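Batch manifest, entry 17 of 40.
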Amino acid sequence: MSEKKEPSVWEGFRAFLMRGNVVDLAVAVVVGAAFSNIVNSVVKGVINPVVGAIGTKNLDHYSSCLSHACKGDEGIRILWGSVLGATLQFVITAAVVYFLMVLPMARFLARQEARRKAREGTHEVVQVTELEVLKEIRDALVAQRTAGPGEQAHSAGPGEQARSAGPGAR
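Output type: structure tokens
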């Protein structure tokens, strides 16, 4: 009696890690973390100085006060500058990811799909044409067998006459 050996916990864990999705996700997290540093630098080095031409360089300093006495830690402040900075970082990140990663990949996949469909389409046409020719040959051979010697079994159609006459007859 042979017993089936169940995979160990480590083998299962290794199989889980080697799945394509997990590896792709890990790469995406690493690239995303590195990319967020670039976006933060662009916001701090380019966007904040442009905004600073109007007011302060640090967007976190932009706020509004809900109460009359907003001095120091007193009062209720709404820090809309922080929200604006985070929104700008998100929009820049989303735009770069879309235009540099998603859009080119979608175009690449669409071209691959079009090539695959074109290959399949020409392959199907060749198969159908060969099949039709073989059926016509079979029908002609059957017709010759059933007809007596010297008799013609049926009159050939216009396409069959051109084919039976040879290549130079057209």
